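anyone seen this seq b4? input:
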Amino acid sequence: MSTGSHAGRPRSWVAVAIIFVGFAIGGVGITLGPDWVVFGVGAAVTVIGGIIALAVDIMTDVVVDEPRQ
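predicted toks r here
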Protein backbone atom coordinates (compact mmCIF):
# COMPACT_ATOMS: atom_id res chain seq x y z
CA MET A 1 0.00 0.00 0.00
CA SER A 2 1.26 3.46 -0.78
CA THR A 3 2.35 5.82 1.93
CA GLY A 4 1.15 9.38 2.09
CA SER A 5 -1.94 11.35 2.95
CA HIS A 6 -4.02 10.07 0.01
CA ALA A 7 -3.66 6.37 0.65
CA GLY A 8 -6.87 4.45 1.12
CA ARG A 9 -8.71 1.31 0.32
CA PRO A 10 -10.65 1.12 -2.94
CA ARG A 11 -13.97 0.71 -1.13
CA SER A 12 -13.30 3.96 0.72
CA TRP A 13 -12.70 5.73 -2.58
CA VAL A 14 -15.96 4.28 -3.92
CA ALA A 15 -17.79 5.81 -0.95
CA VAL A 16 -16.11 9.16 -1.64
CA ALA A 17 -17.10 8.93 -5.31
CA ILE A 18 -20.74 8.27 -4.36
CA ILE A 19 -20.71 11.31 -2.05
CA PHE A 20 -19.17 13.41 -4.83
CA VAL A 21 -21.84 12.31 -7.31
CA GLY A 22 -24.52 13.22 -4.77
CA PHE A 23 -23.07 16.72 -4.39
CA ALA A 24 -22.91 17.09 -8.17
CA ILE A 25 -26.55 16.03 -8.58
CA GLY A 26 -27.60 18.43 -5.83
CA GLY A 27 -25.61 21.24 -7.43
CA VAL A 28 -27.31 20.66 -10.76
CA GLY A 29 -30.68 20.68 -9.01
CA ILE A 30 -29.93 24.04 -7.38
CA THR A 31 -28.81 25.63 -10.64
CA LEU A 32 -31.85 24.39 -12.60
CA GLY A 33 -34.37 26.70 -11.15
CA PRO A 34 -34.02 25.39 -8.30
CA ASP A 35 -35.44 21.95 -8.97
CA TRP A 36 -36.06 20.63 -5.48
CA VAL A 37 -36.72 17.05 -6.59
CA VAL A 38 -33.30 16.78 -8.24
CA PHE A 39 -31.73 18.49 -5.23
CA GLY A 40 -33.46 15.99 -2.93
CA VAL A 41 -32.16 13.07 -5.00
CA GLY A 42 -28.65 14.51 -4.72
CA ALA A 43 -29.02 14.92 -0.98
CA ALA A 44 -30.26 11.34 -0.67
CA VAL A 45 -27.33 10.01 -2.71
CA THR A 46 -24.94 11.99 -0.51
CA VAL A 47 -26.48 10.54 2.66
CA ILE A 48 -26.30 7.02 1.21
CA GLY A 49 -22.63 7.62 0.40
CA GLY A 50 -22.05 8.76 3.97
CA ILE A 51 -23.68 5.63 5.32
CA ILE A 52 -21.52 3.52 3.03
CA ALA A 53 -18.44 5.44 4.18
CA LEU A 54 -19.28 4.66 7.80
CA ALA A 55 -19.98 1.02 6.93
CA VAL A 56 -16.56 0.54 5.30
CA ASP A 57 -14.89 2.32 8.25
CA ILE A 58 -13.37 5.05 6.11
CA MET A 59 -11.80 6.82 9.10
CA THR A 60 -9.27 4.01 9.56
CA ASP A 61 -7.70 4.99 6.22
CA VAL A 62 -6.15 8.11 7.76
CA VAL A 63 -2.38 8.10 7.47
CA VAL A 64 -0.58 9.85 10.28
CA ASP A 65 2.97 10.76 9.36
CA GLU A 66 5.76 11.33 11.82
CA PRO A 67 6.12 14.99 12.84
CA ARG A 68 8.64 16.90 10.73
CA GLN A 69 11.50 18.64 12.46
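The mean pLDDT is 87. The longest helix spans residues 10-31. kinda curious what u guys think
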